[in-house]
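User: Teach me something about this protein's shape.
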Amino acid sequence: MSKNHKNILFLFTILLFQTPFVFSQAMTDIGGLMKNSKVRAAFEYIERIESETVEEQIKIAEIPAPTFEEKERGAYFQKRFAELGLKNVRTDAAGNVIGERPGTGGDGAPTLVLAAHLDTVFARDTPLKTVRTGTLIKVPGIGDDARGLALLLAIARTLEAQKIETEGNLIFVANVGEEGLGDLKGVRHLFGEELKGRVTHFISLDGTGLGVTTGAVGSRRYRATFSGRGGHSYSAFGMANPIHAVGRLIAKIADFQTPAEPKTTFNVGVIRGGTSVNSIAAEASFDIDMRSVDPEELKKLDAKFKEAAGQALKEENARWNDEGRIALDLKLIGDRPTGRQSQDLPIIKLAAEVNKFMNIENRFGFASTDANLPISLGIPAITVEGGGTGRFAHSVEEEWDSRDSHVGSQRALLIVLGVVGVDK
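Assistant: First, the predicted structure itself:
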């Protein structure tokens, strides 16, 4: 154990009880948690197995799992959950892989979902060959979210190896559909159907570093499609052009002004259209992502976009005197809720206390993660980064440095045990 962590032996337990949407802090016992010999052993054990956790992280990253195509990686987790002694291991209708570890606390005990997302932003044919240089590991998805998935397994392994019984119930979930057009498909199904009414707390393990997400960045995503008759670029010249209309609209978007605080952003990420250089396209489209930590700012940006879209359509048709008139379709392809939580929320205070006793600087903030959904429902939720140092996420150049990554593993373990408590 490193010198910086010796004080952790006098850490605490925070046992949180709640029913969905309403909860209270039942007990705060600084030092209580780490006085339990099994917890101390678990804290040391999860550091001891870190090299094996990293090897499994690489194995996970090398299993392709584009959004909507997570089945192969999900099968790996169904097998591993069973091997680690989780109960009622299953894959639900959405594709989430679930394993349960019931607590001893009965009906009043908390039920924590500990989740990490299976999917990546990379196409199935993306090369997933790992390159290692010392502690630096390069392979797409190694941090987002192979790191969180590896921690999910490491925590389950540690609890089983150290025979720790928790008072609260733990539900381990490798969920689908976090990235992009997945639009939180997995967690929507969890809270809407599979685990509806059961969950009192939620922790997502996502990303690298030692930050904690305590608030939800909401987003609205649209596919804007302009369509018309199309024709030959010379003989049919003089008609409205869907690609030109796309250009008009993107130019308007590029000039949008949004506040720096609350941070509000926009991005056109994908453009489609056309069949050849000498054809007037019959259809052209693009996808736009708009985000804000504030629901009112997001609403205003959404309205501004729709107004600009109508103007671009009108201008393109008017430019050609309504010859070959084109039409516009705006399709909502993503709608992630935003939400804030009090910094006095026990689960957030718990994360801060773990940071304090592990000499980790608090880096709390807003992001768009699986925690968005429970936060929007009033269920206490945070996203915990998994340690190590990552760069170039969502890029085929993604890399992760495993130096001191065990700190992330230990911290995640303690936060989990702080929520569910340990049976003496």
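Now, about its shape. Residues 295-319 form the longest helix (25 residues). The first strand starts at residue 13 and ends at 19. If you'd like, I can walk through any region in more detail.
User: That's plenty for now, thanks!
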